[in-house]
Amino acid sequence: MSESNRELIFEIFRYNPEDPQSQPRMQTYRLDEEPYMTLYRALNRIREKLDPGLQFDFACRSAVCGSCGMMVNGRPTLACKTLTSDLDHTIRLHPLPAFKLIGDLSVDTGTWFREMAERVQGWIHERQPFDPQAIEERMDNQLADAIYESDRCIECGCCVASCGVANTREEFLAPAGLNRIARFMMDPRDRRDDDDWFDVVASTEGVFGCVGLMACHDVCPKELPLLEVYAYLRRRALGSAFVRRGESPGAAPGKSG
Ligand code: SF4
Ligand code: FES
């Protein structure tokens, strides 16, 4: 951990799309580094001391809410999880691409994730009507773990921002959308089968739209196993013909097969 008296130089993207006078530009701020300083704290210092108009988002300050995703020196990450001591003294910040810009470093990830959830119908489609008297059904522990892994997504948008395809083709469901699909494909309580999923998964809006650069896997701040999720979806898509013949569709992410 650095205890140095570094002066940090922030070069921050500024633009207000609501203001016709506003022009996209980079603005420079200088700030004394503090021990254990995160980017979240540095941005708050800049807003308190230097520029109350600077826009950026945060809520939890502990990598849980997914609000503070931004491009840090060209890489999408969470501001609240990034220590300035891990960065060079000049720090360039941009908003996440692929999302609607609200202003400066603030983007609208909420609309993107809501539309994605509606597209994939990201909720359990129950096999039978809810019965409050029913005895709880046990789930295989490994399968429950795999579903839990996918559910750890905090919807920060870093994987979407890192994805060349998601940045150029709006219809691509992007890593976060495909992760959501895998979560419900794995869930034995969901009645949708491979045939129901086939059109969306086995298409260029689905897993076959991915060109395999896998930056999403590298940047996910929650370290979700996105490589395994993609492999699982490919197996399920390619195996759907076998499923119709009653053969195995493939194991959940994290399992062999
Ligand atoms: Fe963020 Fe990871 Fe979820 Fe993508 S998969 S939105 S990078 S937590
Ligand atoms: Fe919640 Fe960073 S402030 S994830």
Number of helices: 10
List the helices and strands in order.
Answer: EEHEEEEEHHHHHHHHH
CATH topology of the largest domain: Fumarate Reductase Iron-sulfur Protein, Chain B, domain 2
What overall geometry do the principal axes of the alpha carbons give? elongated
Task: Outline the low-pLDDT stretches.
Answer: none
Structural domains: how many? 2
**Helix-strand category:** alpha+beta
Portion in strands: 5-15%
Features:
five-stranded mixed beta sheet, 10 helices, Ubiquitin-like (UB roll), 7 strands, alpha+beta, Fumarate Reductase Iron-sulfur Protein, Chain B, domain 2, 14% strand, two-stranded antiparallel ribbon, 257 residues, binds iron/sulfur cluster, binds FE2/S2 (inorganic) cluster, 2 domains
Give the SSE layout.
Blueprint: E1 7-14, E2 25-32, H1 39-50, E3 69-72, E4 75-78, E5 90-94, E6 100-103, E7 106-108, H2 109-119, H3 141-151, H4 158-162, H5 164-168, H6 174-186, H7 194-201, H8 215-219, H9 226-238, H10 240-244
Parallel strand pairs: 1-5
Antiparallel strand pairs: 1-2, 3-4, 3-5, 6-7
Helix pairs in contact: 3-6, 6-9, 7-9
Residues 153-159, 175-176, 179, 220, 222, 224 line the site of iron/sulfur cluster.
Describe this structure in words.
The structure is a single chain. This protein starts with 6 loop residues before the first strand and ends in a 13-residue tail after the last helix. It has a five-stranded mixed β-sheet. Strands 6-7 form a two-stranded antiparallel ribbon. It has helices at residues 39-50, 109-119, 141-151, 158-162, 164-168, 174-186, 194-201, 215-219, 226-238, 240-244, and strands at residues 7-14, 25-32, 69-72, 75-78, 90-94, 100-103, 106-108. By secondary structure, the protein is α+β, with helices and mostly antiparallel strands. Helices cover 34% and strands 14% of the residues. The mean pLDDT is 91. It is elongated and about 65 Å long. Bound molecules: iron/sulfur cluster (SF4) and FE2/S2 (inorganic) cluster (FES).
